[in-house]
Design brief:
The protein is an alpha/beta fold and about 375 residues long. Helix content is about 45%, strand content about 15%. It folds into 2 domains: about 1-140, no CATH class; about 145-385, Purple Acid Phosphatase, chain A, domain 2 (4-Layer Sandwich).
Length: about 375
């Protein structure tokens, strides 16, 4: 049954991917004169590059190697190019439609219409390249976001807790040694009492993580009270049990629908990802069940990867919920979609006595590009009465 669902899903993705690329391809081809020697190069080059993303998703699972890594990088960048090429193409077609009824284009556009289309193609390629380059530089330079929060509870022996949180790291082919080294160095520079990873620590495929020995980087994190993590949807896409086992072997304590008392002073609750049922057929536990042993006179910190149903945390007396998953759209204009989908797509809000924070995430999925938001590590100075 699950195999059939995967085949249907994969088929839909490939068909949609093919249609979008075909639209971009036709628009580009129309700009190149029919007798031009560049036409065959464009046709071959376009479809070679456009096929790399699908090819990379297959090869990463069956043949992880240097060549596969190169193909993955090309395919991932192409996704970003594809997004902005389709936006330009749709905008141009909308402008042509408007111009058909209400002439708005200047007459010189039509003096040599073929040349106009060729110039427009060149400008589009340069513009998209600059946008993608800016997004790549942004994605490679995460910020450290600082947050001061207060919980109206008394904690014996301490008045504050230095928490460092990150989500959506997506360790794998694109987020590899260099980014993992920086993640660990930045976390350790903050001298955390507690480190929390709110899901999607690894990307779908564990093979590149093992090949690059990225677990060894995570093992170097220094935290007085430990490093805790939860599963995200990407752990389940690639196989949660293998991912959890690998992360636990490298020093992370994985919380899977579990509540634990840390340092005898506060409760830490970690939920399995809500996509667990989709990939295993087994539902995750209800938050009310997980919270049964929790002493709510103590601070309660909850990690839940996908920020749905925030009212449940409020009803259960959670003091602080940390989430990720949204990437805040990762690339403009997807932030408008995530803002419509989630009560909180990015940043902080408070409902009743419950603080919520949804991180933009540290890494990227698909294109190694971020536009309209910054990747981040979050330092939370949590104070008590």
């Amino acid at each position: 049954m699950k195999t059939n669902i995967f085949i249907i899903f994969f088929t839909i993705v490939v068909v949609v991917y093919g249609l979008v690329n075909s639209y971009i391809f036709i628009k580009g081809l129309q700009a190149i004169p029919s007798g031009s020697e560049w036409r065959p190069w464009y046709i071959a080059g376009f479809w070679v590059i456009a096929s790399t993303f699908i090819l990379a998703r297959i090869l990463e699972r069956v043949w992880p190697c240097g060549l596969t890594g190169v193909i993955t990088w090309i395919g991932s960048f192409w996704l970003a190019y594809m997004l902005y090429f389709i936006l330009i193409a749709l905008t141009v077609d909308l402008g042509r439609l408007i111009n058909h009824f209400i002439p708005v284009f200047p007459q010189f556009f039509y003096t040599d219409y073929q040349k106009t289309k060729l110039v427009a193609l060149f400008i589009s390629m340069v513009l998209v390249t600059l946008v993608v380059l800016a997004g790549f530089i942004n994605a490679r330079n995460p910020r450290i976001k600082r947050l001061d929060l207060h919980i109206v509870k008394t904690v014996a022996g301490i008045k504050s807790l230095n928490i460092v949180m990150a989500s959506d790291i997506h360790l794998g082919t694109l987020i590899a040694k260099r980014k993992a080294n920086r993640l660990v160095a930045d976390i350790n520079s903050l001298h955390p009492d507690l480190v929390l990873f709110a899901g999607d620590v690894v990307d779908e495929d564990l093979a590149p993580v093992i090949k690059n020995n990225l677990g060894a980087n995570l093992a170097q994190i220094k935290s007085r009270l430990g490093v805790y993590a939860i599963t995200g949807n990407h752990e389940y896409i690639g196989g949660a049990e293998a991912a959890v086992k690998y992360l636990e072997e490298h020093g992370l304590t994985m919380l899977r629908d579990t509540a634990i008392l840390v340092d005898g002073r506060f409760w830490l609750v970690g939920r399995d990802d809500r996509d667990k049922s989709r990939f295993t057929g087994k539902p995750r536990r209800e938050l009310a069940d997980i919270m049964q042993p929790v002493d709510r006179t103590m601070p309660v910190i909850l990690m839940d990867h996908q920020p749905f149903h925030l009212e449940q945390a409020v009803a259960q007396g959670v003091d602080l919920q940390l989430s990720g998953h949204t990437h805040h759209g990762q690339m403009w204009p997807f932030n408008y979609i995530t803002s419509a989908m989630y009560e909180l797509s990015s940043g902080y809000k408070k409902t009743g006595n419950t603080h919520f924070f949804v991180s933009n995430g540290y890494g990227t999925w698909g294109p190694p590009v971020r536009l309209g938001n910054r990747p981040e590590i979050v330092q939370i100075n949590l104070t008590f009465e």
